[in-house]
Automatic annotation (TrEMBL):
It comes from the Bacteria. InterPro entries: YhfH-like. This is Protein YhfH. The gene is yhfH.
């Protein structure tokens, strides 16, 4: 069962920034949806 969960997270597609469209270099399962460059407070 644990193997299936690990495979699920390994196979998630890369996240794309909602502002600029670049691939986000972070864990794909996290909640952020903007890259570091666009995520300025």
């Amino acid at each position: 069962m644990l193997e299936n969960i690990i495979e699920f997270f390994k196979n998630l597609p890369p996240k794309i920034c909602t502002s600029c469209g670049k691939e986000i270099e972070e864990q794909h399962e996290c909640y952020g949806n903007k890259c570091d460059s666009c995520n300025i407070l």
